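Let us walk through a complete example step by step. Step one is to write down the protein sequence. Step two is to encode the small molecule, adenosine-5'-diphosphate, as a SMILES string so that its atoms and bonds are unambiguous. Step three, shown after the inputs, is the structure prediction itself.
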Amino acid sequence: MPTQPNLTEAETRLGGALPHRRVEAWKWTDVRNSVKETASGLVSACEPVFELPSDLSVNRAVNTAKDHAMGTLAHNFSGESYLIDVPAGYQSIDVVRLSGLSAGHARIFIKLGKSAELTVIEDHRSDEAGFVNIEVNYDLGEGASLTRTMTHRDHAQSTRIVTSQINAWASAKVIQHALSFGGGLSRLETNVAALGEGLNAQIHGAYLLNDQRHTDMTSYIDLGAPDGVIRQTVKGVVTDKARGVFQGKFHVRRPAQHTDAEMRHDALMLSDTSEIRAKPELEIYADDVECAHGNTLGALDESALFYMRQRGIPLKEARALLTEAFVAEVFDDLAEDRRDDFMTDIRTWLEANS
Amino acid sequence: MLKINNLTATVNEGAMTILNGLSLDIPAGEVHAIMGPNGAGKSTLSYVLTGRDGYDVTGGSVEYMGKNLLDMEPEERAAAGLFLSFQYPLEIPGVPTMTFLRTAVNAQLKARGAEELSAPEFLKKARKIAADLKIKPDMLKRPLNVGFSGGEKKRMEIFQMMMLEPKFIVMDETDSGLDVDAMRIVADGVNALRSPDRGMLVITHYQRLLDYIVPDKVHVLVAGRIAESGDADLAKKLEAEGYDAYAA
Ligand SMILES: Nc1ncnc2c1ncn2[C@@H]1O[C@H](COP(=O)(O)OP(=O)(O)O)[C@@H](O)[C@H]1O
Ligand SMILES: [Mg+2]
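Step three: the predicted structure of the complex.
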């Protein structure tokens, strides 16, 4: 048994251990090692900014702590939680926008009543170095439908952990698209629990990382009821000395018969010094299911690049075009305006990094 | 227009010499054909001319319109009007044919300091050429060459060629994979581009393409150099007698 190292100064201020590389689920994302005791937001509350349709409101409430390390910290330092209650049958053309998540701890609970439909656009961004620990909880009532996008871009010296828990009752639907440009150390973790039958979950994402940026996209889909349909496509692009991490797990419990689940992670390495760590996992206890997973790692196709150059397309542009095509697939079925926003950000990144 | 002098080139980090003292002079306005057995170095010549990585020139020179071609990057050669119709056209996943081609056309115009084509101008030209080549408009929306048949890929090469209006055209076995009807359509396209200021090098394994694109000169390429040159009749002789007479 490895002995637990003494608490770092940051951990002493926090009053407990941070996840570190000797914890299996955090082996590639060592939070302990990345957080300095001087980091802004380390022991303070984050004040999120909500833009809401006029018929929704945010309340504050005390909630119990989550039984994981980051959840406990979020509980201890965030003050009261933020709570949005979306009534049964709710529909709106207006979206919920969540921003201001640039430093500190916050806990957010968004509860969708029966058959409610909601679109949430989350902006996880910081312009200065700091520590961010956000817990976002969604509770989806029977037949509720959540459309969620997350964009993430942090200062190069920041640490960000976003832990999402999505609990879905029967026939609920969640479509999530995350786009990350990384930070010093960042993890976007999404946990989905099917509590009722017929979950439809699409948990997609892409990360594009340069310099020494780090993004970890971890997900855990816990299927405890039958007839779930799960689709997951995550694409990664890394260059310079950046590091991308993908950990995906489908846990198909015995009652989850007729689960239809597909997981893909594909990564492009644009430099020899970049890194990808991937761990796709299926754990299946039900016998009548269709589950598949795939994981690839590669470089841009040199022959295709030559072909494009022979047509007059400069190398840099050819690389950008091929990379864009590789990533764009993730966002194919995103609503047009959000897709356009994502693609604009991706093109800007490609112009600077191809 | 294109002057190749005593060219030698290797592949596999110099482990294999493929071109072995090849000389060829193609003036503007002429169409020359290169014929030769499999493995003679025909495709290697096309890649050396277009600057593909892994094909290393170890001797000789290539002058293209007064410039040292071998000094230029592949995209510079393309912008200077050099076009290769690939023996095996590449698939470009995720990039629609029209997007690809518009990027290429505008990149070349930009490199030459010319104004880019507007979207309507580009579309109009593309529609007309596609119709001439009997290419369905639907195909232009699909990612370039992905899932296309061999014949469709070859036709798409000619489509790109006609859109880009190159000055010097190298065609590497454009006839393989084409039936007679498709070959006639392709040949009509190529012949329409014949002009006093344009040169062409038509690489083929079979003589039949040369019934439709009649060359000014025919060269036989064997073991990396030109073994014989002649007029269009030489192609007919090769078709009848094969390449055995040139065996080393
Ligand atoms: N990239 C390469 N690596 C190794 N060998 C090659 C490569 N390209 C061509 N060759 C070899 O060079 C020779 C000539 O090939 P190629 O130019 O394709 O001939 P042709 O087009 O006349 O049939 C062949 O023996 C082929 O195997
Ligand atoms: Mg060949």
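Step four is interpretation. Chain B has one domain: 2-246.
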